Amino acid sequence: MKEEKCKDLYECIAEGKQPNGVESERYLLGYILIDPEVLNKKITKNLCEGHFFNRANGLLFQAMSRLHAETGELDLEQLQNALESDGILEVTGGKENLLELADGHLTTMGGSEYHANIIYNKFCNRFCIGVAKVIIFDSFNDLDQPDSIAQAAITSLAAIIKTR
Fold first, then answer.
1. What residues contact residue 95 under an 8 Å CB cut-off, 6+ apart?
2. What is d(CA 15, CA 149) in angstroms, rounded to the nearest whole number?
3. What is the per-residue pLDDT for 63?
4. Cα R_g (the chain), whole angstroms
5. Nearest partner of 116 among 67, 61, 55, 157, judged by Cα
6. Which of 14, 24, 81, 100 has its CA 20 to 30 A from that of 150?
7. Is residue 2 over pLDDT 60?
8. CA nearest neighbour of 74 among 85, 63, 86
C-alpha cells in the first residue's frame, strides 16, 4: 500500500487522505523480528503504537516492544503466543503476516533507522494536518479570537517539535 501524493488539497481533504509510511512500518517490523536490538536504537525507542498509521502495525510494534522489554528477547513463536493470548493475532494479520515479516525480504530496503524516521515524520505530518483542521474549525467558530487560535496552534506544534 504505497502512499499517494496529494495533488489537489480539496480532493485530499474530501477523501480523507493522510500521509503514511505503511511500507516503512512493515520494513521496521521485519527488522525488529530479525534483530530485536533495533528496539534499543534511540529513534526506535521514541516510537510508540500511536505513531503507526496502520493500526495492526502499531499493535505489532507495541507487542514487540513490550515482549523485548519484559524478557530481553523476541522471537516469532513468543510474539505469536503473546498476540494470541492478548486476543489480537488475527487483528494484526495472523500467523501468515508474522511469517511474511520474519522472512527477511522486507529488510532489503534501507536501514531500520531510515524507516523509523519515515514513520515518525509521517506521524508528525498527520499531527500538523490535525492542528490545521483545528485552526480552520476554530477560525469559523471564533471569528473574533484570532490571537487565541494562533496561540493554541503554536502550543500544539511546539509540543511535536519537542519530541524530536
1. 80, 89
2. 26
3. 97
4. 18
5. 61
6. 14
7. no
8. 63
Q: What is the pLDDT of residues 79-94, one digit of tens each?
A: 999 999 999 999 999 9
Residue found by looking up cell 492542528 in the block: 131
Task: Tell me the C-alpha distance between 150 and 112, whole Å.
Answer: 37
Query: Number of C-alpha atoms within 13 angstroms, CB side, residue 99?
Result: 3
Name the phi and psi angles at 3, rounded to 5.
-70, 135
Does the structure show a pLDDT above 70 at 20? yes
CA–CA separation, 24 vs 107, rounded Å?
10
Give 160's contacts (C-beta < 8 A, 6+ positions apart).
Answer: 124, 127, 128
- Domain 20-162 matching CATH 1.10.860.10: the answer reads yes
Q: How far apart are CA 140 and CA 6, in angstroms?
A: 25
Contacts of 151-155 with CB under 8 Å at 24 or more apart are none
